[in-house]
Automatic annotation (TrEMBL), chains A, B, C, D:
Gene name tied to this protein: thuA
This protein's name: Trehalose utilization protein ThuA
Domain of life: Bacteria
InterPro entries recorded: Class_I_gatase-like (IPR029062), ThuA-like (IPR029010), Trehalose_catabolism_ThuA_prok (IPR009381)
Domain ThuA-like: 4-220
One Pfam family cited in the UniProt record for this chain: ThuA
Amino acid sequence: MNIRALVWGENVHEQENEIVRSLYPQGMHTTIAQAIAADGDIDVSTVVLQDPEHGLTEEVLARTDVLVWWGHKAHRAVDDAIVERIAARVFEGMGLILLHSAHFSKIFKRLMGTPCALKWREAGERERLWVVNPRHPIAAGLPEYFELENEEMYGEPFSVPEPLETVFISWFQGGEVFRSGLTYRRGAGNIFYFRPGHETYPTYHDSNVGLVLRNAVRWARPSGPALTSIHKAPNVPVDQAIEPIVERGPKLHKPGEEGYK
Amino acid sequence: MNIRALVWGENVHEQENEIVRSLYPQGMHTTIAQAIAADGDIDVSTVVLQDPEHGLTEEVLARTDVLVWWGHKAHRAVDDAIVERIAARVFEGMGLILLHSAHFSKIFKRLMGTPCALKWREAGERERLWVVNPRHPIAAGLPEYFELENEEMYGEPFSVPEPLETVFISWFQGGEVFRSGLTYRRGAGNIFYFRPGHETYPTYHDSNVGLVLRNAVRWARPSGPALTSIHKAPNVPVDQAIEPIVERGPKLHKPGEEGYK
Amino acid sequence: MNIRALVWGENVHEQENEIVRSLYPQGMHTTIAQAIAADGDIDVSTVVLQDPEHGLTEEVLARTDVLVWWGHKAHRAVDDAIVERIAARVFEGMGLILLHSAHFSKIFKRLMGTPCALKWREAGERERLWVVNPRHPIAAGLPEYFELENEEMYGEPFSVPEPLETVFISWFQGGEVFRSGLTYRRGAGNIFYFRPGHETYPTYHDSNVGLVLRNAVRWARPSGPALTSIHKAPNVPVDQAIEPIVERGPKLHKPGEEGYK
Amino acid sequence: MNIRALVWGENVHEQENEIVRSLYPQGMHTTIAQAIAADGDIDVSTVVLQDPEHGLTEEVLARTDVLVWWGHKAHRAVDDAIVERIAARVFEGMGLILLHSAHFSKIFKRLMGTPCALKWREAGERERLWVVNPRHPIAAGLPEYFELENEEMYGEPFSVPEPLETVFISWFQGGEVFRSGLTYRRGAGNIFYFRPGHETYPTYHDSNVGLVLRNAVRWARPSGPALTSIHKAPNVPVDQAIEPIVERGPKLHKPGEEGYK
């Protein structure tokens, strides 16, 4: 069965800025979705910030294997309740791919638990992404490195948790470095942060970037049904202990009582 | 210079429950603080939920090296703004030690970004903590394992991120296991989760538990001054790039403009 | 295309011990191979210690996606040169699954770089494997825990490097715990250590164990062609630097000279 | 009590090459030792390859807290038995710091279990080390980045295991990046790899490099007495099980028998 990916686009720059519109006339989300769909093994839809519930209803998320996120100017416009809804689905196993300025999205900061800050410079300089983990599935088919002739610079320190694995590290013409491809697991969900993709450059038309996007969606797909039990902290009654035990000592909770949250 | 530790106590069970009061007549926070102070190299204060601002003013946190947290019944009573204030200090380098039911505290969930759920059973059963990382500083001076004859059971899966290092794993009489000592770094701050400490048992009077608390405070202390820069995402102007570069291509931001958050 | 797995069996206990032979009349490797082949998506062969080159010629390894290893009594009989040959293939991307007493195999110690020691007791006691990482691909389809009524005990501390992820933790009847499922990447190769499988018990006839074996083979498969470049430390000539640079200062090596190894 | 550091020098280039001798007239090991001793809290000795047993007798290693290693041309001249002796001490808790070309030393490859290969270019180009983990103890007191105006380039992929934490990432003038400061724990021992230090440049006279060396020695010191138990895989007799159990089922080993290694 095909993987079901959903690309979420902020869709603001495209409406306001002529440069961005000329690069992405149908919106950045559309170009991103086309890159992901290119091999035919991934079914891709798109939704945008301006849709009801930002396009992220319970029903839509329930049938999404991997969510791909591009946002920048309107991070604060994303509803907190929907951020929690996305987080819950990640914990249950939905994959999540965060692109570029999504380092400051509510959902990424929510899942990382850290500031996710960095340095930046918008000078159209050269970025060279080195593959430091050459057979990680997300790097499949890539050369040793690939270049983006014009990109925004992001510089370290990038205040995120130590990742499971570092896949890419970027070299910038102006003298900085950046961990450009980082993997995480949160609950049952696989998370990938991928640095490139400033709105004023044609990054999502680049073939290597497209390959990374497809690889990342394949890597992030769930390995089983939704882990809905992750939201519960069940009491195990004494008489249902796997190994027979006898209750001892004082206790606070009454039988069958819920724990405190 | 002595390490400056601050023990935060929820201080509710002690007021409401005769069993807890009899075990901890001056409050659980006081017993925890006494254990931490026992070697004389750590200066310890205590504050409680009921203090103004829960005792956690900017001034108090600014002079705290390591915060130790015990909470259970009143997680929701902790003010969100103060949770953010603590998180900010952790990012700057303050150590944080979470005890037992603090797995569901707002501050732990905030920093982990995950549900932090688990199984539980209150039967006074035997817990045996195995040291799986025998020369980790937090395990210094401990035997191969130590036992708590009466404890609440916490069982896996514990929905937290993969830790930097696992220090302890618990065996429970009723058949479960639990990762009982886990280390994390978030921003510049060291974080340690330590499982034991149910309020109806004398856990914080145990000498091995006291040793772990002291070791953990020493391990978690900051290695330098507050990293206040972690809250900023500075723009690096093109003419201040370390390596000279020439601005190219279109850009979105005006010179000196702030980034979007 | 089917995954190509190769099961390596030490094949000594089966020849010497009536109990083992009665449990595994065609050899433990055969039972392991049958479990792996059960779903039809994996092509499985077997080789044994006693084969020429232990069955692990360059040709055989070159066409192996995932090698599964069971050894115990004859670790020292494995030729060092063949251990290096296997390691080289792992670095190039071949998956490797180490079973039970293979914790002391030359190849596991070679790849971990640590003693890989542990406690043990042969008492036919109950082992309960808890899934601590519920949607890790290796745990797909498993219940919360599964039991082996008679197993050898392995106890912590297990002196291996901190893993990428911990998948299983075992509870033992006699009071110990053990990290029973650990993942690593070494070079381009995925490695999984799986604890159960003492030769005097019918462990490899257990359906949950069989499911883990199949999942592990699928998880460990290479994500691309052999990374043969991993064995080289190439000199990048100054005039082929990606960014033009001018050679400066003194140097030790002559142009085109090999580095020191 | 002062930390006891031991600097091991290969001491070959200094004898053969006029450039190296002019930079390090008393040997590279002496300059490295002076940098480590500068604050007075670390007692430093030096030994060299040419000493009996390379200066690394059991007695010397037994009283060493942290061993610092610089080697390049004569990796193969280091005796395998002494490599194993060092490894054993690391497992017991001795810290180990590997400098620059020590990425290909026998002891580093032994402990990592991987090829430890990389790209290189000797062009005296600029290296800029970015601190990506700003309050890691090894980065204490450093600015955001520091530069070495003339260094050898090392480029990714660096075939080492995923580290516990990445402390530094280098930018090179010719277009490459490299993970320049990596931490590991192997057994009870802390390990730090630090990239800079090519013999034809004055790197070990640099004040930031000296600060990193001192920080690293302090970070790597053991947190307790030698963990000699790590070399054993003890049998736990059934009648000494912590929780009483009854032996069941068939068994292979006789009471008191050693396990197979």
